[in-house]
């Protein structure tokens, strides 16, 4: 054992104490927020003041009316909503509880409600259901003052109990309504009966905003007019919810019907400020990420109670289309192009006062290439955004994925769980998650948390690795090293890396540029393997990652290297029985759940799911991918595969067997098994493709791929095959071009390649521009529109069965339950085997 670097820096996180909450003075704005604009546009609405007082012909009461006196003959919510709609109204505000405390829903916390009355109809649910059905916006009114439960408002000791009661009731209301519609406004009333500091304003806000961020919250009269006499740090006066008196001729100013940072008022108690300079720590700034860029240590991230927060963004949960392209950013005639400039249609970007720390992210050209780059300026007159960096493919417009969103703007720090980095000032601003935060952590360490190098028979078991900026566990030149039963999460980069990475020299961009070998990084591994197909990462032999849970990582789950392609020497490294998900928090394109390269490695019994890009990307030879359950990957991208490889016909001998591909997005060009740009020589058998994307199988011009005993279920197309080398891909097979180069690099006409893959030695003997030797044998096609898209002569099809009738599933909705013993498939497809359905997927408990 030469060297063992056990960098057990698992606690490389900063436990940051929460700042003492403060309250800011009301500051009006000259512009309404987006949601205030939505509220203004709604204009005309119906206010429904209905409850127990209705049956006593009074507006207010004190909670003394017997609950049974609320006794409507019928609640016709359909009529209410239709009346509002027919009158041209855009929304309804329904009184959920007035000052007397009677609740129009079945509340667990009081008997003074409809469930105990003469009509048990849940009015809140009935109206919410009708609003959804008839397309009406819904808001709720709730009285803070409750004369039934909290009549003695002077009793300060009762505040805690009553405030808890209120927040639980608000949760109940959200539980009821969110099944049907979003609450766009929440009106609170009755706050004047006691000093403002005694109301749980922050709790009210978080309870609602954590579930409905767009909901406008308003409080009638002032709240917080008086300072808290029990808090020596409280300001003389807290913020107001209504403006001071105004005179005719004063300019219009917008005060909130809502208190969020995107709106005119910000209660400072909601925002935490962490001063890294004061604590003599480095706050690492954001940097460019995306296709063709190296995978590197992330910026400083922050976590609350073990959950990663996200950089503040606009729009919060969507993207906007790229407008007119003024400058694409692509080089012309060999000259470096200016940075991209593009247009926008929305009003919001014109309101941003500073772009000092602003970034944008999105798919700016191709749907498989994400980018995040900085912004230099915004031209609000011409509505143009001037970026400050290049991308590999520049900017385009017109395709559905040509969209962007803004990041790291203080003005967009408007929802729970967001943060903004101001590295120049050494400060991070954080909008906490709803509820009390017990622990804050920030990522500091740039290198791996654990590095194991030049040693053998090391076992790491039962450890949680988290809060690093790059790699969780790193291995190099190891033998029989085992990572077992570990949790690897909240990393800025990849969870585990087996083998060296590379770093580029200078300012190279693009996936076709390589780098120099470097330990303890991933870097530009993708570009290096593309340029130098024989690159040996020195990943060692017989190393394993077993029974591990890897999630909430920034740039892929596992990078699995090992083996020598020049000599076809296998490594025997493996990933087995692991659960890998949510692995692209920072870098998306070509950062798969598992990257595999080299020779003779294995991925077995893994669950891989919930990611915008690929599950498995591999390069090299004689790998095995087996018994994996892969779902909901490639959810965001175009032209990607759940399992992907390509553009190198020397990458042969690979096996994909007994995997379950299901629920892959058909929105763009998404494939389950993707043989790209002339990929050859794969054995694919015993797999299940159930709603597996728009093209479950794609063979892009390659040869000698064998599909046997697979099950295809419920898809418009099962197999796509094309002759791209005859068309747009012809450049790849020209003499001296990339295919020729790669075959010459492995010396394909001589051992070991000529003996391991005899058909490869004859690659150029026939017209290689047409796909040939692709065999589709003994497969089931159940509820498939077209078995093949492409010319049938490019495939050898036999002993297959296409049917719209149940072939004998135990449960057709759950193919993993397998076939009945007497299933028809065993009669219709000669030699169809009993597949190991019960072994598919990870055995770890969820």
From TrEMBL:
It is an enzyme of class 3 (hydrolase). Residues 56-225 form the Glycoside hydrolase family 29 N-terminal domain. One of its GO terms (biological process) is carbohydrate metabolic process. Belongs to the glycosyl hydrolase 29 family. Keywords: Glycosidase, Hydrolase, Signal. InterPro entries: Beta_helix, GH, Glyco_hydro_29, Glyco_hydro_29_N, PbH1, Pectin_lyas_fold, Pectin_lyase_fold/virulence. Its EC number is 3.2.1.51. Residues 1-19 form the signal peptide. Residues 543-712 form the Right handed beta helix domain. SUPFAM superfamilies: (Trans)glycosidases (SSF51445), Pectin lyase-like (SSF51126). It comes from the Bacteria. This is alpha-L-fucosidase. One of its GO terms (molecular function) is alpha-L-fucosidase activity. Pfam families: Alpha_L_fucos, Beta_helix.
